[in-house]
Design goal:
The complex is a heterodimer.
Chain A: E1 4-5, E2 17-18, H1 23-36, E3 40-43, E4 59-62, E5 69-73, E6 78-82, H2 87-95, E7 99-100, H3 111-117, H4 124-127, E8 134-141, E9 146-150, H5 162-166, E10 174-182, E11 184-185, E12 189-196, H6 201-211, E13 217-221, E14 224-231, H7 233-246, E15 253-257, E16 272-277, H8 283-292, E17 297-301, E18 306-311, H9 317-326, E19 333-335, H10 348-358
Parallel strand pairs in A: 2-4, 3-4
Antiparallel strand pairs in A: 1-2, 5-6, 6-10, 7-11, 8-9, 8-10, 12-14, 12-15, 13-14, 13-17, 16-18, 16-19, 17-18
Chain B: E1 6-8, E2 14-16, H1 18-21, H2 35-53, E3 59-60, H3 63-68, E4 76-77, E5 82-84, H4 89-102, E6 106-109, E7 126-129, E8 136-140, E9 145-148, H5 154-161, E10 166-167, H6 180-186, H7 193-196, E11 203-209, E12 215-219, H8 230-234, E13 243-250, E14 252-253, E15 257-265, H9 268-280, E16 287-292, H10 293-303, E17 313-321, H11 323-339, E18 344-347, H12 351-362, H13 364-368, E19 374-377, E20 380-381, H14 387-400, E21 404-409, E22 415-416, E23 418-422, H15 429-446, H16 465-468, H17 471-484, H18 515-520
Helix pairs in contact in B: 2-4, 9-11, 9-14, 10-12, 14-15
Classes of the chains: A alpha+beta, B alpha+beta.
């Protein structure tokens, strides 16, 4: 089987790209790679590839051709799609019946890629992490075994939770081919309450979280606070009133209805973006550490504990990581070259055995995941 | 049910068949003594080491203790050699080290409310009971988290948190007596996990003592942790990967407004269609429970909840959130119910009325015990759209087997809980229960459902796993388990059928090695 075709123009490295069109072809590509000792990087929409340690690979395996909507029963709030389904297309489809898979990934990102990277939605406070939104997975392990885990129901404890094992595994255990997703109703109304920057940003955020029930998100940035509200119109009015009261009056508040969230991403233009994760009350300390690292911009999800930090280069990374680890947090690079994950995993023996069982020949992005050394 | 590892006693009790289930090796020792003296000597030594490591009175091998821990709340009885009640992480580690030294299987156990035999021991097991690890270690409202020991009872934690305006969202029906450690092990649900999600979504981190005694923290107080999501594997692993010694739970703010409705239907199909209709209308209620006529007739005289006893089915629906949205959703639910011929709609007038409506639902098991000596409670999940079909199928199956069934379940999740009522002393009754059970579970799986929604697989359903999964699927699960416990001494014979073996699974290169060797021969320090 020769599925090699020239590398896409946008990709920097001149690696051969293998683009299987079926699960059988995925298994074939993996068998060939094992035979030839060829190391593969699994890619989808190429939007989350910078996450992970640099891994020397010989070729890329794209799941982009596995992009079918396999099953969608709106009444069950559950859709089954190929791993290569672009998030943008999925969102358009689901909108027809007023539903969403709330990961807020770029339109070109694939469902499989978002799961493999465990990418965080800015609305995570309300919609939860990606790992809670995956009900069933099908994958081909590095050893070439076809595995299905989970089930097509919203609740399931039938065996070990391999869906969560695969989520965030960065394509190092197997190639995701198909997944069943937990959907939610699209909110009837959306509003962003924006407050300009002020002293005590994080204290203000804490006040807002205590005063406003069920916010969808609360993003704190150097240019202000964005309180995201979603739901029934009556709820939004009440939440808005409570927010204005907590902020000390409507003078400093702008309301943006039906606009995308967030309105501003002051970290985004930076060459290197770190996604720090700490207990929510330590976000301010992360921002203080980032300020010492000459950051270009930042945005923190209050109540969640995610802080995106934009850096000019990888120079200050080591110091920043040290500070964040001292806060009992982690700081993987999610965009930019060569940043890596920068944190050691607990229970290395368990990790090693899992990798060994799923990918005994080490052909799937060796070293991309947390290493021991 | 066709469970290879489980046999019937002449008096009707189920017990674990040692020949099939167990893991304790009975080898001859070096002096060539037979298995029995060597075995007894080993147990004696293990017992003495445990007594030395734990507090006075916390280790037992007397007949009463062994009888008490022979089973959980399921119908399956097993065997054990020793019971230990550690009071600290260090004592849990000591238990694991002693068991490792003497090759004993270890069965972790919380309050013992499990219904699938997950805590039913076998062979010369050491049962490690976590009920004395019952401290709330730390509550951090600003981070909406708490660290608790596994023996803390579910409802005790939520009661303690209420003054802070927070709670632990999973609320299994056993919540007065079940422990958070047990909830973690079975990935417990409950009525309100429809909106709030099952236990896994409420566990930020776990501290786990691995079978060799190493203690690791998996997960993090923050939203992401380094490494694979091993936390996610420990939740729902039914005690087969280690013993959880502390849990960092996510705390959820109490809803500012709640509204509870009782909807009364003349046809079961109308109630079930209303469930699907509510979800399709874009409303995810906090809870949506269905009770059928038979259980209403049992509950009402017992609990005086105000349930109509002449309805074919009622729905107990609850919405929570902000007052405006709650009113809107209650109105939507009522509208959907009207389109499915609801006979009456009652809204709880106040907190007292609401508590009464819930009391009926929560006293189902107690009420049933007044009319039947035994019940067999099932736990399967089906697509919501198949609820009517499956309920009618269940009625048909039990009638054919001359049994009585009552249904009270988490309809919004499609999580069925048929309770088959019977008297074990009546000849043949239990056989009919098992035959009907197998038909019901099979029908649910054939309808696109799964084996368990919140009780777990345990011993009860492990041999039904092939209904859902193929050989490689089960082998992948076995590898996952073996990654934590290569010797397979943690809660052996649970979750996976005996045929599921990791060995071949990872054998891409066609070698036939011993699993433990194979998994270990990746060099230290290599990338993973």
């Amino acid at each position: 089987m020769d599925l090699t075709r020239p590398e896409a123009q946008t990709a920097p490295a001149p690696l051969p790209l293998l683009a299987p069109r079926s699960v059988e072809e995925v298994a074939g590509v993996l068998a060939e790679a094992r035979g030839a000792g060829r190391r593969l990087l699994v890619v989808g929409g190429r939007t989350h590839l910078d996450k992970g340690n640099p891994s020397p690979v010989d070729a890329e395996l794209s799941v982009a051709a596995l992009d079918r909507l396999v099953e969608w029963n709106p009444a069950e709030m559950l859709a089954v799609v190929g791993a290569g389904m672009p998030c943008g297309r999925l969102d358009e489809l689901l909108a027809e019946h007023g539903q969403e898979w709330p990961v807020d990934a770029p339109a070109a990102a694939t469902v499989g890629g978002v799961i493999a990277a465990a990418a965080s939605s800015p609305r995570r406070l309300r919609v939860g992490p990606v790992r809670d939104l995956v009900l069933e997975v099908e994958l081909v392990s590095g050893a070439g075994r076809r595995i299905r885990a989970g089930g097509r129901t919203v609740k399931n404890v039938s065996g070990y939770d391999l869906c969560r094992l695969v989520t965030g595994s960065l394509g190092t255990l197997g190639v995701l081919t198909q997944v069943a997703l937990k959907l939610r109703p699209r909110p009837a109304a959306r509003r962003t309450v924006r407050a300009a920057s002020r002293n005590g940003l994080f204290a203000t955020a804490a006040t807002l979280l205590a005063a406003v029930p069920r916010p969808t998100a609360l993003l704190v940035t150097p240019i202000g606070i964005e309180l995201r509200l979603e739901g029934w119109p009556a709820d939004l009015e009440e939440q808005t009133a409570l927010a204005i009261q907590a902020l000390g009056g409507s003078g400093a508040v702008e309301l943006h209805d039906e606009e995308p969230f967030p309105l501003a991403r002051p970290w985004e233009a930076a060459p290197v973006v770190v996604e720090a994760a700490v207990a929510p009350s330590r976000l301010q300390a992360v921002v203080e550490a980032a300020a010492d690292a000459e950051m270009l911009g930042w945005g923190a999800l209050a109540g969640v504990g995610i802080c995106w930090v934009g850096l000019p280069d990888g120079g200050a990374l080591a110091t920043l990581r040290e500070r964040i680890q001292a806060l009992d947090g982690i700081a993987p690079v999610v965009r930019g070259p060569g940043g890596g994950l920068g944190a050691a995993a607990p229970a290395p023996a368990v990790h090693r055995r899992l990798k060994r069982a799923f990918d005994p020949d080490g052909i799937l992005a060796p070293g991309r995941f947390w290493g021991e050394s | 049910m066709a469970i290879a590892a489980v046999r019937r006693h002449h008096d009707g009790r189920l017990f674990v068949d040692e020949r099939n289930a167990v893991a304790t090796p009975h080898k001859r020792d070096q002096q060539g003594r037979g298995p029995e003296p060597a075995r007894l000597e080993r147990l004696e030594r293990a017992g003495a080491e445990l007594v030395a490591a734990l507090d006075r009175g916390d280790v037992s091998a007397d007949p009463l203790a062994l009888a008490l821990y022979r089973r959980d709340a399921s119908m399956i009885e097993g065997s054990l050699a020793l019971v230990a009640h550690p009071r600290s992480r260090e004592q849990v580690v000591a238990c694991l080290r002693v068991a490792a030294r003497h090759g004993l299987p270890v069965v972790p156990r919380g309050s013992g409310t499990g219904l699938s035999g997950g805590a039913t021991p076998s062979g010369d097991a050491l049962v490690v009971v976590t009920t004395k690890l019952n401290r709330v270690l730390e509550v951090r409202p600003e981070d909406r988290l708490a660290w608790v020991e596994p023996g803390v009872l579910n409802l005790d934690l939520s009661n303690q948190l209420r003054p802070l305006g927070l709670h632990f969202a999973p609320d299994p029906s056993s919540q007065q007596t079940s422990s958070i450690g047990g909830n973690v092990s079975t990935n417990a649900g409950g009525p309100h996990c429809l909106a709030y999600g099952v236990t896994s979504g409420h566990v930020l981190a776990v501290e786990v003592a691995l079978p060799d005694g190493e203690v690791v923290r998996l997960g993090a107080e923050g939203p992401e942790a380094p490494g694979l999501d091993l936390r996610g594997l420990v939740v729902g692993a039914e005690g087969t990967v280690g013993i959880v010694t502390a849990i960092c739970v996510r705390l959820t703010p109490l809803a500012p407004a709640v509204r509870t409705l009782l909807l009364d239907f003349e046809r079961v199909a109308d109630a079930a269609d209303t469930v699907a209709g509510i979800i399709a209308a874009g409303v995810i209620p906090a809870a949506l429970e269905l009770l059928d006529r038979r259980i209403l007739e049992v509950i009402e005289p017992y609990a005086h909840a105000g349930y109509p006893t002449d309805a074919a089915a009622v729905l107990l629906a609850e919405v929570d959130g902000l007052p405006g949205g709650v009113a809107h959703e209650a109105a939507l639910i009522e509208r959907v119910a009207r389109s499915h011929h609801v006979r009456s709609v009652v809204q709880a007038r106040d907190e007292q009325h609401r508590a009464r409506l819930w009391k009926g639902r929560k006293s189902a098991a107690g009420a049933v015990s007044l009319i039947a000596p035994h019940y067999y409670l099932h736990d399967t999940v089906v697509p919501r759209g198949k609820l009517t079909e499956l309920l009618l199928r269940i009625y048909e199956v039990v009638e054919r087997h001359q049994l009585i069934v009552v249904n009270v379940f988490h309809a919004g999740d499609g999580n069925l809980h048929p309770m088959l009522l019977f008297d074990r002393d009546q000849p043949g009754a239990f056989d009919r229960v098992l035959a009907a059970s197998e038909e019901i579970v099979t029908a649910c799986v054939e309808a696109g459902g799964v084996l368990s929604g919140e009780h777990g697989i345990g011993l009860e359903k492990r041999d039904l796993m092939p209904l859902l999964f193929g050989t490689d699927d089960l082998a992948a699960q076995d590898c996952t388990r073996a990654a934590f416990d290569p010797e397979r001494r943690m809660n052996p014979a649970k979750v996976l059928p005996s045929g599921a073996r990791c060995g071949d699974f990872a054998m891409a290169r066609g070698k036939d090695q011993d699993l433990a060797t194979m998994l270990e021969d990746l060099p230290e320090g290599s990338w993973i």
